[in-house]
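Service request form, structural biology core

Requester: graduate student, group of Dr. S.
Request type: structure prediction, single chain
Budget code: on file
Notes: please return the result as structure tokens.

Sequence provided:
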Amino acid sequence: MNDDEKTIRGVAATWIAATKRGDLETVLDLMEEDVVFLVPGAEPFGKTAFAEASREMTAGGMTIDGESEVLEVKILGDWAFMTTRLRIKASRPGAPEMVRAGHSLTILHKRDGRWRLARDANLLAPAKTSHD
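Core staff response, request fulfilled:
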């Protein structure tokens, strides 16, 4: 495994750890300014919409826990892609825990010596139990 692949895997680990801590600024710093997210049932959205939705969830008392397993990393110069298996648990006081699981495909760009998310497509769907 070369240094770039280690760094990219570290980006995924940092994202999950920061999300668990509720550290939105660290998560936002892992994104390109023109990042685009693709999720089922919604129009593509960018960094500003991601930040606004995250702040709303936090203000509503939501906490997020999750696991990410990097399955593949391919590096093509200053661009790379990775596939991951994700499991996200979101909970809010007085509400049932929501569990979503599935795969994602992420395109990263290396600029100024740092790898950041440029595009992210996730296929997370509701999981029946926390063990699906």
